[in-house]
Write a sequence for this structure.
């Protein structure tokens, strides 16, 4: 969900105007007074600061998100469409921050948006710009590698109190070599999720702040664990792979969401090879009455004694789902998690 808590309501319009004038010059953006915003539906007035004007001579409306309210991408898309219908001009949604997965979803929905000092996406007006003023080339990768994400999720699932962590044993348990673990530790430090603590020859990761803080800081760097989905009619898949429940099947076991019509399981690519050797055939496209088999980027059985994937990986796999009931269930998962 779009996290709108990084700037205060009063500063986002100012930051947006400053950024656009920095990009297009002091005369690039001209704001105009209008009483149309007062005629908008109350839910739009409550959600956005609406600023009519011109950008490079083209009529536009800036809609700056207010306050700390989180919104799903599909909500932002619906709001942008509604504003455009009511105001009869192109609308650019101003956001204080946006995670990589959310940015992709906004672009896929065709939503024109701006994040001050980060990105402007308005293809309808021929404007696409990504940069960081004054920051220089970015030195760290934006998304964590699968091994790094797996280790972080393992830590959150299995270390409820620990503030220092020596992750090499966990890496071995997840099937990662020492070199892979070293690279994962380097990424966790680059993302400033942990600090390094050296004890003799041993290196530990030290957690500053709460585990919930760690999760919130990590979210922009985390991706869905689902690499692809295949389908099968063969019910032997349950016995051959021992695959845990995933997707909405797992969500139904953790929350009040109803069971989906199609069962969903998760497995690694290696487990998929074992299934094929046992004679199980997979279809690349969805089939009615079949079982959906998600192929994960890392081991889906984080919770060894559970028959479902771990709740945080499940959250990541479903966070871009547009269904409001799914989003409410994901909020419930975060609230129930033992931080």
């Amino acid at each position: 969900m779009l996290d709108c808590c990084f700037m205060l309501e009063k500063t986002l319009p100012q930051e947006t105007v400053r950024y656009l004038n920095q990009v297009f010059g002091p005369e690039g953006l001209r704001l105009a007074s209008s009483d149309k915003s007062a005629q908008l539906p109350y839910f739009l007035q409550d959600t956005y600061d609406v600023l009519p004007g011109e950008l490079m001579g083209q009529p536009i409306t800036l809609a700056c998100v207010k306050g700390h309210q989180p919104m799903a991408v599909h909500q932002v898309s619906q709001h942008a469409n509604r504003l455009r219908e009511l105001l009869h001009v192109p609308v650019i949604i101003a956001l204080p921050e946006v995670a990589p997965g959310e940015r992709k979803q906004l672009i896929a929905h065709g939503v024109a948006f701006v994040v001050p000092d980060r990105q402007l996406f308005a293809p309808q007006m021929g404007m696409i710009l990504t940069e960081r003023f004054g920051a220089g080339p970015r030195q760290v990768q934006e998304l964590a590698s699968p091994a790094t994400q797996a280790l972080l999720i393992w830590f959150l699932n299995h270390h409820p109190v620990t503030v220092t962590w020596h992750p090499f044993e966990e890496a071995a348990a997840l099937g990662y070599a020492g070199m892979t673990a070293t690279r994962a530790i380097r990424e966790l430090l680059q993302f400033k999720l942990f600090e390094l603590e050296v004890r003799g020859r041993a290196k530990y990761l030290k957690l500053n702040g709460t585990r919930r803080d760690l999760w919130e800081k990590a979210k922009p760097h985390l991706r869905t664990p689902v690499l692809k989905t295949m389908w099968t009619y063969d019910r032997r898949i349950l016995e051959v792979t021992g695959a845990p429940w995933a997707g909405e099947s797992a969500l139904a076991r953790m929350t009040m969401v109803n069971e989906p019509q199609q069962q969903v399981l998760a497995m690694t690519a290696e487990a998929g090879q074992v299934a094929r050797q046992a004679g199980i055939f997979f279809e690349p496209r969805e089939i009615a009455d079949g079982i959906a088999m998600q192929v994960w980027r890392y081991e889906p059985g984080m919770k060894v004694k559970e028959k479902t994937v771990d709740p945080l990986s499940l959250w990541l796999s479903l966070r871009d789902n547009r269904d409001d009931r799914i989003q409410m269930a994901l909020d419930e998962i975060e609230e129930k998690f033992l931080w």
